[in-house]
Amino acid sequence: MTSKSLLDPVAVLPGVGPKKVQALHELKINTINDLLHYFPFRYEDLKVKSLDEVIDQEKVTLKGVVVGPPVVSRFGRGKNRLNVRLLIDQAVIMVTFFNQPWLKDKFETGAEVAVYGKWDAKRKSMTGMKVLAIKNDTSPEFASIYSASKSIRQTTLVKLIRTAYDAYADLIVNILPQALIDKYRLVTERQVIHGMHFPKTQTEANAARRTAIFEEFFLFQMAIQLLKKREQAPEQGLALHYDNQKLRAFIQTLPFELTKAQKRVVNEICRDLKSPRHMNRLLQGDVGSGKTIVAALVMYAAVTAGYQAALMAPTEILAEQHYKNLQRLFADFDVQVALLTGSIKGKARQAILSDLAAGKIDLIIGTHALIQDGVDFAKLGLAITDEQHRFGVNQRRVLREKGYRPDILAMTATPIPRTLAITAFGEMDVSTIDELPAGRIPIKTSWIRGNQVANALSFIQKELAKGRQAYVVTPLIEESESMDLKNAQAVFAKMQTAFAPTYQVGLLHGQLKNEDKDQIMQAFKANEFQVLVATTVIEVGVDVPNATAMLIFDADRFGLSQLHQLRGRIGRGQEASFCILVADPKNQNGIERMETMVATTDGFQVSQKDLELRGPGDVLGEKQSGMPEFKVADPVADYRALETAQIEAQELVTTGAWQQPENRPLANYLAQQEQNYQNLD
């Protein structure tokens, strides 16, 4: 007889044929281990309550005596209801089950029954959901509720999990190191599985969930820390021995003093460049904190070490802006700067490509055109992505493969709360610019209701009269029947009515061709338009110092981080700037978001609040976020467990203790996960 294993396919369980295998496969349940770790998302409290304890619309278990035969009646097409009267606490209660006529046999006059359902206090009646066996002292007080599919019923799932547990419980071992179980008073793996599926008490369910949350975070962090260690092995990286004297001389030429935070992150990055370890660092800083100058300094360091550097931006307009800034900065230095975007074609493009391959170009700035075939570097040492969450993981990987494992720096102006830094960017080191350059005047933000727009327009009129410019932002481009939103075309027409002929109004939206977008933006920068009506196209990085006012319609439809990015388009000059949010939020969540924007201009506070209100996928963008899918753990709600798990995983990987004989089950589990991952590739 072959020995049993938790990796046995679910088909080994009695009664599981091809149809059930397929249904389980849809739930990503392929093995016995998958089935045992398919945890419920909530529990129903089956404890019997008395009538004076229950509240209206509560789901509850009541116990009573059947006072008459049940009656099934039909109504509508193919619908029926089963009515039965129960004597509960000296009151006769009507219980109605919809479309479950077979339950009729469960009710015998004079017999005691327990029913679970929703209580209606006004009618003194109950909508029944299920009939329960009369409890004995050992019966569970909870029913586990699972995310099942249409192909498989809850009851079937529960039965299969029970069968698997009874047959395989003796094979369940602790993956968590015993030292951590003792240190944090966790329960064993067998207790986790029993307590998650079949808890007898709330205490047992809580202990199992607490351990399951920690274990999920810990195993994820172990994988991340091992990846990080492998990535940083000396043979994986380049040591860029830059010229410190030249770098200092370059810093002396800057027309401003670097902030303490800028100096700190430049030192962190330069230390990584010099080290033979491979750099994989995230540079985050609020809007306007001066990330671009940091990028310029570290790219120059790479050039003095005899290497090329590349900076990839998500849009042509941002790439051109970086290019012009860097050209100006390096005008008096022997540094060749080039620009490569999709718009550069023909001979001009060929000339750039051959100079790049020949090593005649030191710094290249571009869009995703940089990662296309035919773009070859002579000696790429440093690759930087700006607004890195705009690029997928694969795009970043392709840029890195353009050279021999160049050091990687990802920059983002979406401040990332520590929760996300640990999960979505766990394999990266994080540098943070947490102060703004001196002289920055904070942007004043106010929130108005839809009926106060006229006041806002007259305020903008005053700003325009001072020679300033304004943005008017709207969420949608065209009329949408499903959502009553101000759309760009309609707002554009209104703004023309409000400001023309004295002032010119432009329109910028995502459906325009790239060349047209650039043209409109350049015209706005040159003050050919005084008011620019735009969708979120203007969100990233575009610099118009003369723009001091921004009016955002339907502000409650934007995420907080997005609103903060939009707001960062103003306040880039020497004048005071004003952001006016127009919103009529329908719920407390919307009100809270508007109040947060008015209360703080700190991007880290804003993004933390955004994370709490909306969740990680929405903050980073579901596809780019790289956020793992946790089954029981929640990185926001369970943040302290996440942080503890990271600290413990780092310690085990750094010391190598995870490979000790007593941690063999953990090492085996990680090896198995690595194998699964490689099979996916």
| β-strand number | 21
Span between N and C termini? 35 Å
Give the structural class: alpha/beta
Q: Please list the strands of the largest sheet in the order they lie side by side.
A: 11-12-10-13-14-9-15
Helix segment tally? 22
Shape: globular
Please indicate the percent range of residues in DSSP E strands (runs of 2 or more): 15-25%
Give the mean pLDDT: 86
Q: Helix amount, in percent?
A: 25-40%
| Main beta-sheet strand count, sense and barrel state | 7 strands, parallel
Unreliable residue runs: 617-626
Radius of gyration: 31 Å
Question: Would you kindly provide a written description of the structure presented here, covering whatever features stand out?
Answer:
By secondary structure, the chain is an alpha/beta fold. Helices cover 38% and strands 18% of the residues. The chain is built from 22 helices and 21 strands. The strands form four sheets. The protein has a seven-stranded parallel beta sheet, with helices on both faces. A six-stranded parallel beta sheet has the order 16-21-20-17-19-18, with helices on both faces. Strand 11, helix 11 and strand 12 form a beta-alpha-beta unit. Helix 5 crosses helix 6, helix 7 packs antiparallel against helix 9 and helix 8 runs parallel beside helix 9. About 1% of the residues have low confidence.
Give the helix/strand layout.
Blueprint: H1 18-26, H2 32-36, E1 42-45, E2 59-66, E3 71-75, E4 79-88, E5 91-98, E6 112-120, E7 125-132, E8 142-145, H3 154-168, H4 178-183, H5 189-197, H6 202-231, H7 244-252, H8 260-274, E9 280-285, H9 291-304, E10 308-312, H10 316-329, E11 337-340, H11 346-357, E12 363-366, E13 380-385, H12 393-400, E14 407-412, H13 418-423, E15 429-433, E16 444-448, H14 453-465, E17 469-473, H15 488-499, E18 505-508, H16 514-525, E19 531-534, E20 547-552, H17 560-567, E21 578-582, H18 588-599, H19 603-614, H20 616-620, H21 639-655, H22 664-680
Parallel strand pairs: 5-7, 9-14, 9-15, 10-12, 10-13, 11-12, 13-14, 16-21, 17-19, 17-20, 18-19, 20-21
Antiparallel strand pairs: 1-8, 2-4, 2-6, 3-4, 4-5, 6-7
